[in-house]
Amino acid sequence: MSDEVRFSLTVDGTSHEVTARWSESLLTVLRDRLGVRGPKTGCAHGRCGACAVRADLGDGDPHVLCACLVPAATAAGGTVETIASIGGPDGELSDVQEAFLAEGAVQCGICTAGFVTAATELLESNPEPTRTEIEEALYGNLCRCTGYGRIVAAVETAARTRRGEAR
Ligand code: FES
Ligand code: FES
């Protein structure tokens, strides 16, 4: 019996028909089968957040998850938004991305899509997070380069910008 499964998956607004092995992760399907390279491969074990995407796996409740932990077939019929869905349609940076650049919160960049994805979800549900709430929201994301202070400062800056407050 074949261990492959065929299913549809919408990624960043584009519908795909995917054939993948049952054991393949959503991250592998995105990067290696569909060429969607925004989510990064870090630990591949759910510990670094580099692969974070926002996904609706069919329950109508989109949320941020680690694509390396999700068997791709469980996303059948679902929708995935990667970092490509966060900026504007012509590549404009989002306010969160702008804040990361302004605060020097990006160095090698392998962690950045995951942090921006998690931070964006936080600010959509909580426009005025405390520093503790920011740290808790980013708890599943690791950065080896910047130190976390600049990243937390970037999220605070983005939150102030969203609220129309001066930086
Ligand atoms: S690559 Fe998925 S959490 Fe590290
Ligand atoms: S910028 Fe390099 S790991 Fe975060």
TrEMBL record:
It comes from the Bacteria. The keyword rRNA-binding does not apply. The keyword Iron applies. PROSITE patterns: 2FE2S_FER_1, 2FE2S_FER_2. Its EC number is 1.2.7.4. It is an enzyme of class 1 (oxidoreductase). InterPro entries: 2Fe-2S-bd, 2Fe-2S-bd_dom_sf, 2Fe-2S_ferredoxin-like_sf, 2Fe-2S_ferredoxin-type, 2Fe2S_fd_BS, Beta-grasp_dom_sf, Diverse_Oxidoreductases. This is (2Fe-2S)-binding protein. It comes from Modestobacter versicolor. The lineage of its organism: Bacteria, Bacillati, Actinomycetota, Actinomycetes, Geodermatophilales.
